[in-house]
Amino acid sequence: xxxxxxxxxxxxxxxxxxxxxxxxxxxxxxxxxxxEHLLQTLRSLNAQITVKNIALIVIENDALAQEGAKAxxxxxxxxxxxxxxxxxxxxxxxxxYNAGWLTAxxxxxxxxxxxxxxxxxxxxxHWVEELCKTQAQFQTDFVGGPQVPVFNDIQKRNxxxxxxxxxxxxxxxxxxxxxxxxxxxxxxxxxxxxPFPFLEPMFNFxxxxxxxxxxxxxxxxxxxxxxxxxxxxxxxxxxxxxxDWIRTRAMRNGMISTMVExxxxxxxxxxxxxxxxxxxxxxxxxxxxxxxKAAQSRSINIGLNYIYVGLGRFMAHFGYQYEQYRAPxxx
Length: 331
Known about the structure:
single chain, nine-stranded mixed sheet
């Protein structure tokens, strides 16, 4: 087991006497300009009620300011947290995930599952155990869980049912596929068999690299489950409740759907035409679906989401890209 890393990955801190061989669960936490919330995230991981031997890998993806790394590196060196702090010098969401997952493989020879949490999320006390319990019960390669939105404004809590914030599933059990790495368990065998880079860098600033990775893994035979009690609580800033953010996010989701399907069908003789035809059909049907969903939910905003997704999916065929991670202050 080699512990060498590429030159673009710098180790900032390692907990003294870290027992690499005894770790069975690695949790990776990418971070970018959220030092205060990152500390809350780490404290929620320290408070886990679990029998697992856990190591944390924090991936700083702001190579210049390194606000997160500066805030937490001393705490790792003081053994307040167990694990490592690394810096991925190459900017981009996918690069950060790739750096953390590669570091896990290189440094922890016996870990069995890798968990992913973002630096704007707080883990419920049994989060680790619920994900691992569901994996053991259904013997799957991936397990996802809900990211429960937390709104500062009590008047905005009805937004939790909006498709932009709502989870894809609501019952624990096997599922056809997962869509996000925001709350995810990945078995080691997946990372050992999938090619590196795990997340395709073309998605670095658009998002969707996680969806593409899970999609490719699914086509290779890996399966998935949903753990409905493995809750993470995601802090939702006020800007994410603005109409333009909701609209752009929905269109971005449609765009990612087109990009992922384009890669999936790249080797099919008429793959491009099939993908375009599906996008055209989804856009054409979206007003009817929007009307149905708006009537069911009594919310025009929920209905409009389906039109925005259809638009984003269709426009992606003509070069539309929304690089949300280029302007993190607007994300």
